[in-house]
Design brief:
The chain is of the alpha/beta class. The protein is 27% helix and 18% strand. Strands 2-1-3-4-5 form a five-stranded mixed sheet. Helix 3 packs parallel to helix 4. Bound molecules: zinc ion. Zinc ion binds next to loops. The site of zinc ion (ZN) has 7 residues, from loops.
């Protein structure tokens, strides 16, 4: 499987994980998967997994030790662009990803300005992280968020 095919497969899996999120009228449903350099799954997470304030990326990261050496070569797949501003908790997913030292992020859908203005992709790129946007899968993410106002698959 090519690296591009691997990215698409893992991102689809992350999008499928979002179907497990308890639906919220005021928040996105997101799925996230962290893999190591050999495409082994290290952790998965989804929005509101154990608490109404949980974001998918932080839920996945919380399952790993902050000093896990595999994070230095990991890829984080998330259906939605990592948040750079949030109302629920002080630390954003973009900050969590930077702190964890994850060098590569793949996402499908750039967060629309529905709740907050998101600059996750730009912030990660400015910090030297590789950010891959596979927007050909964005319609699947919109479908898992069609409960939100103005979002259509
Ligand atoms: Zn977040």
């Amino acid at each position: 499987m090519s690296a591009q095919e691997t990215d698409r497969k893992r991102l689809r899996e992350a999008i499928e994980l979002a179907a497990r999120c308890p639906v919220s009228p005021s928040a996105f449903s997101v799925g996230a998967i962290i893999t190591d350099a050999d495409d082994r799954v290290l952790a998965t997470g989804y929005s509101r997994e154990t608490d109404p304030h949980d974001h998918a990326e932080e839920s996945a990261l919380a399952k790993l030790a902050p000093d896990d050496p595999r994070l230095a070569r990991a890829t984080l797949y998330t259906s939605l662009e990592p948040c750079s501003t949030r109302a629920s908790r002080p630390v954003t997913c973009t900050r969590h990803i930077l702190d964890a030292g994850i060098p590569r992020v793949v996402f499908a859908w750039r967060e629309p300005d529905l709740f907050v203005d998101c600059e996750g992709a730009e912030t990660l790129r400015a910090a030297g992280r590789e950010v891959v946007e596979l927007d050909e899968l964005a319609h699947l993410v919109r479908a898992t968020n069609s409960h939100l106002p103005g979002i259509e698959p």
